[in-house]
Specification:
The structure holds 3 protein chains of 3 kinds. Chain A is built from 11 helices and no strands. By secondary structure, chain A is mainly alpha-helical. The chains are: A mainly alpha, B mainly alpha, C alpha/beta.
Chain lengths: ~240, ~130, ~425
């Protein structure tokens, strides 16, 4: 969906308001993009091109992805997520959602939206399979010993019926390896990234999940629970 | 395959500059006889990108406060030696000696891993 | 003898401070009355000094003298011209310095220095006030020598010929002038000789104006009339303009006339909105933006800090003035060659200065300094560049250890990533100084 002049000027008006409130202005903040329907996503998934790892490697290097995401997708910092080992369908979908502008949390999303304007679906598929072919980082951001409590492990394995929260593991895997449909691997994830995205789902700033299938589980989670889950997954090994 | 790729990466990122107002690098060793620059003075030169004391969490340039000493040293040496590619850090890191990098590592490792906005600046002083 | 125990003094000054003989008549006054550092100028250099001084010394008294109640960031202000930033985002006030950093901010003009009496004379609405200091940091920025171009003046700059080289009302005025231009109109930019603050900025300005005009007035033209034969990031800009503005073709939106091709502007005929170049060419334009020749701030001249020279001479180890060891001068007003004049460097000068001051309070020798200028620019919202300059001091002289400009590669992803870096830098830098 192209940015129209109206959208641009709306964006500026919004930016003025945000700036007056002290928030950072975002070039893409005002864009209105239709959310995924199940049918649309399933069709898109069926149409996902066959990716090529070698082509993806070249694209990742020519595209300077390493400059933010780390060499081979292992980020030594927590400023952006590591991409190594991530579920290819998830990565592909994320790149599509950046391109359309459906994914936009705040001004930090702008650079990916800008970058994806120059990539097509074949290239996105190539990048996705390249990163999937790398190993998930383990203990990149967390100490050896998990600080997770039994309560957190229970949330992951059994969910919370009283709040209609299904077990995280039911989609993200018993070992956080992801993979069911488009769900991402969470094992080894940067806790800072985990918290950012859970908060964004909870606030509604992130809304690229199909049928609110992730966002719905976050609304009743507390900050402490999100932090605990972040720590849990940061130390988890996918194997 | 990997070596070729890395060589290509290096070639494309590290072309010798011919642009106006560039200056060839004087290696850090040429300044080794001068008094040592304190880690804080070295590190505070980084704040415009990485935040006061390396404690900005809202931008693309990563925070470096609280970074483990050995992680910082490895990253900076890898940037300096062009083992790790970057947009700008290779040229930032090139100017430092190993011991300067170690002093910066000490400085940043000692900073709390929390945003500068949360710091109580007046703590311990007469204006507290 | 003083009221504080030795233990408390050690807590305040460190054991090293005591061992170098702080005890004595001066330390008695010291312990009771904290030393007073006064800062003239609340721009980037002055604000950095205030903040970074407070960070290393919780007990010193700090006073900042600044005539304006707000500061509008000049770095990042070209972005008003392609509407990627608002004046609100660029505008900061001094409340954070006052409340968070316990800086006494005085809204006033500094007029003179009484070196012997260690006082700054201020204007204080009619009567002359004075503020006593133990150490003085002076960061007044440059002034503009409009008259270097015959027919140009400060009055015209504040009227219909804004230079907009200190962000504020003139920046808004320049944008409004560009917006009101007739279809197919011409903007003429006069780019000054070195040294001036922020070397790539005239070209970034032209590039942003072209970006805006491409959307709103696509047949408009921009003419850059240069007093120089080359400029920072020249290849980047020419590459970008070639790719997106038709540079080098008949339809080019931008033209650059170097000094050797007669581009230097000599005269402004304000009544006829015409610039006259060294060649004798007369260029009539709808919008004229003369970026003026720079000179040291009048304050630096009036106080003798510039010693009749073009810029203020300093000791690069500490940025102490040559005139008085208790007076430090930072930023664009100084003679700091081979450094360029940037806010980035001004803030790094200030960090060295405040450390040197506190070291002296504690009886320590000043440390070896480092000054970096790892700065950025943009050609458009989608194309960024960076520079990495490092300066050391050896044998009392500033040495440029390294100077590198980002290489010009034809890679759209790289341009976007660099643009993101440049935009983020603007915000991070603003916060490093004022937050």
């Amino acid at each position: 969906m192209k940015m129209t002049k109206t959208t641009i000027s709306l964006g500026i008006t919004l930016a003025l308001t945000l700036a007056a409130n002290g928030a950072m202005a975002s070039a893409h903040g005002s864009k209105v993009v239709d959310p995924w329907t199940t049918a649309d996503w399933l069709q898109t998934k069926r149409d996902m091109p066959q990716g090529d790892v070698i082509r993806g490697e070249k694209l990742a290097n020519d595209g300077y992805c390493y400059s933010c995401h780390g060499v081979k997708g292992v980020n030594p910092t927590q400023a952006t997520p590591s991409l190594a080992g991530q579920n290819a369908t998830y990565t592909y979908k994320m790149l599509l959602d950046y391109k359309s502008g459906l994914f936009h949390i705040d001004h930090k999303s702008d650079v990916m939206i800008d970058l994806m304007s120059t990539y097509n679906q074949q290239q996105m598929a190539d990048l996705a399979v390249y990163y999937e072919a790398q190993d998930l980082p383990h203990l990149q951001y967390a100490p050896e010993v998990s600080t997770a409590t039994a309560k957190t492990s229970k949330m992951v394995r059994k969910g919370d019926v009283s709040r209609l929260i299904v077990p995280c593991a039911s989609c993200h895997g018993a070992h956080g390896e992801g993979g069911l449909n488009e769900t991402p691997a969470l094992a080894g994830m940067s806790p800072r990234m985990f918290v950012r995205h859970m908060n964004a789902y909870r606030s509604g700033d992130r809304k690229n999940d199909v049928n609110s299938s992730m966002g719905q589980f976050t609304h009743d989670l507390t900050d402490a629970e999100i932090d605990a889950l972040a720590d849990y997954y940061a130390t988890l090994s996918a194997k | 395959m990997k070596k070729l790729l890395m060589a290509t990466l290096l070639a494309s990122t590290f072309l010798a500059p011919q642009a106006h107002a560039s200056g060839a690098l004087i290696p850090a060793e040429q300044f080794a006889a001068d008094p040592a620059i304190p880690g804080k003075i070295l590190g505070d030169n980084c704040s415009a990108c990485h935040g006061t004391q390396g404690r900005i969490y809202d931008e693309s340039m990563p925070p470096i406060a609280g970074i483990p000493r050995d992680v910082f040293i490895k990253l900076m040496m890898d940037f300096k030696n062009e083992v790790r590619p970057s947009i700008i850090m290779n040229h930032v890191a090139k100017v430092f000696s190993q011991s300067e990098i170690e002093r910066m590592a000490d400085y940043f490792a000692a900073q709390p891993d929390a945003p500068w906005s949360e710091e109580n600046v007046l703590k311990g002083g007469q204006y507290e | 003898m003083n009221n504080l125990s030795r233990r408390e003094l050690i807590k305040q000054f460190g054991a090293a401070g005591l061992s170098t003989g702080l005890f004595g008549a001066s330390s008695q006054a010291w312990a009771k009355n904290a030393p007073h550092v006064v800062i003239v100028g609340g721009g980037i250099g002055g604000a950095s000094a205030a903040k970074y001084l407070r960070i290393i010394d919780k007990n010193v008294k700090i006073t900042l003298i600044e005539p304006n109640k707000e500061y509008i960031f000049c770095p990042g202000s070209n972005e008003i011209l392609n509407e990627t930033v608002t004046m609100e985002e660029l505008t900061v006030n001094y409340e954070t310095l006052k409340n968070r950093y316990a800086v006494n901010v005085i809204t006033d003009w500094a007029d003179d220095i009484d070196y012997a009496g260690k006082q700054v004379k201020t204007r204080r609405s009619g009567s002359i006030g004075s503020i006593a200091y133990d150490k003085l940091i002076v960061s007044p920025g440059p002034d503009y020598h409009c008259e270097a171009i015959e027919g140009y003046s400060k009055a015209l700059a504040e009227g219909d010929f804004p230079h907009a080289w200190k962000a504020g009302a003139q920046t808004t005025k320049l944008f409004e002038q560009m917006k009101s231009m007739p279809k197919g109109g011409t903007v003429a930019i006069s780019s000054p000789p070195m040294p001036y603050r922020c070397p790539p900025a005239p070209y970034e300005r032209a590039s942003f104006m072209a970006e805006w005009l491409a959307h709103h007035n696509p047949t408009a033209k921009i003419l850059i009339l240069d007093s120089k034969d080359g400029f920072t990031f020249q290849k980047h800009y020419l590459d970008y303009w070639t790719k997106v503005r038709g540079y080098g073709t008949e339809n080019s939106m931008i033209e650059w006339v170097s000094a050797k091709n007669g581009g230097e502007v000599k005269q402004l005929d304000a009544a006829n909105k015409t610039l006259i170049t060294a060649n004798g060419d007369k260029i009539k334009a709808d919008v004229i933006n003369i970026i003026p020749n720079h000179t040291a701030a009048q304050f630096a001249k009036d106080t003798g800090l510039s010693q009749g020279q073009e810029w203020v001479s300093i000791d690069p180890m500490t940025y102490q003035s040559r005139v008085d060891k208790d007076v430090y001068v930072v930023g664009d007003v100084t003679e700091s060659s081979p450094m360029v004049k940037t806010g980035y460097l001004a803030s790094n000068h200030s960090k060295v200065v405040v450390q040197a001051i506190v070291d002296e309070f504690n009886g320590k020798a000043p440390s070896q300094p480092l000054y970096t200028n790892n700065c950025v620019a943009l050609a458009g919202d989608d194309y960024g560049m960076s520079i990495t300059d490092t300066f050391r001091v050896q044998n009392g002289k500033i040495v440029k250890q390294y100077g590198h400009q980002s290489t010009e590669l034809d890679n759209t992803s790289l341009h976007y990533v660099r643009a993101s870096l440049a935009k983020n830098w603007q915000r991070a830098f603003r916060r490093d100084i004022f937050a």
